[in-house]
Amino acid sequence: MCIATKFEKDEVIFFAFDPGRGIGRELLKIRGLVHQWSLSPDGRTLADLPHGHSIRFFSLENGVAREDKTVTLNEWLMDNGNWNADGSGLLIPSITPTGTPVILEVNRAGKASIVLEGAANTPFEFMIQAPDGHHGILGEIVPGDNNAWMINNF
Description:
The protein is an all-beta fold. The protein is built from no helices and 13 strands.
């Protein structure tokens, strides 16, 4: 399944999207103007991260979206995330209370674990895991000259 969004007044509207036919029927409306979201690899779960400490999970079955659950992680600030390769959780950039940037893996039950720690003053922006589950693309704000690195055994 492909999904597209449209912003109207104070809502985000999610639509089914067919690359050949364009925007299809409406799947879901969520109040608020700014939402980061990610569709699971199997296309059956939409994760909505409305900036803050919560993640809303929506089940997508037969073209119908229904809210499954909301998980709240009071100790972690989150504003975006991408599904891991097997669809069991989200990879979310955050920061510890001492300022260390981290990538969290948060499962659908709301259990968070740190899978990667960064250096101070170099926050992570995103992590997209490759289908093999062992490689990924990591966005990081690095002062000065930037480069690309390969992270092994992730």
